[in-house]
Amino acid sequence: MSNSSPDPSRKRKGRKKKPTPRRKQQRPPPLYPAGGGLFGHPVMDHAELTTEQVLKRDIPWESYMANKLISGTCLQLLRRYDHKPESQRGPLLDEDGPSYVRVFLNILRNISKEDTVEYVLALIDEMLAVNPKRAALFYDNSLSGEDIYDPFLS
């Protein structure tokens, strides 16, 4: 029987394999557009949303508590903070900033719904945009046992 395909076990001598041309690396999708967030989360369907637009969303915090994704204390803090003007948020952060940071980090760790993740990142972005010194809240001693970077890297 004759087979027209060459025997793959036979090596050809004297022929060098051509190098494969390198492809240009594609860039990841853009983060928030100009005027968007520092902690922009890659957005598939909402590529044109700004931080302000994201913050207009209503997030079902009560549903997350009912499903044990957030605690009752977390829900109380969110009710005090969510959809409030900076004139009310600022004093809350001055009074108990590390608790709010802990809430934001826990949400980013435990909830993967895109709208909610974008919303919390926008809250953090706004908090830091108004007062960049608030970044120190992430390094408070009360958070020393927590990995503050993990939620932003996963």
Largest sheet: none
Give the helices and strands as they follow along the chain: HHHHHH
Overall pLDDT level: 81
Give the overall shape, derived from the CA principal axes: globular
Which value, in Å, is the CA radius of gyration?
A: 25 Å
Distance between the termini: 58 Å
Strand content: under 5%
Q: What are the low-pLDDT stretches, counting only 5+ consecutive residues below 50?
A: 28-44
What's the count of strands? 0
Number of helices: 6
Structural class of the secondary elements? mainly alpha
Helix content class? 40-55%
GO molecular function: proton-transporting ATPase activity, rotational mechanism
Pfam families: V-ATPase_H_N
Region (Disordered): 1-37
InterPro entries: ARM-like, ARM-type_fold, ATPase_V1-cplx_hsu
Question: TL;DR of this structure?
Answer:
The chain is mainly alpha-helical. The protein has six helices and no strands.
Describe this structure in words.
- There is one protein chain.
- It is built from six helices and no strands.
- The protein is mainly alpha-helical.
- The longest helix is centred in the middle third of the chain and has 25 residues, at 86-110.
- It is 43% helix and 0% strand.
- Helix 4 (86-110) crosses helix 5 (114-130).
- It has helices at residues 51-54, 61-66, 72-81, 86-110, 114-130, 150-153.
- The chain has a domain at 51-153.
- Residues 28-44 have low confidence and may be disordered.
- Residues 10-26 have a biased composition (Basic residues).
- GO terms for molecular function: proton-transporting ATPase activity, rotational mechanism.
- Residues 1-37 are annotated as: Disordered.
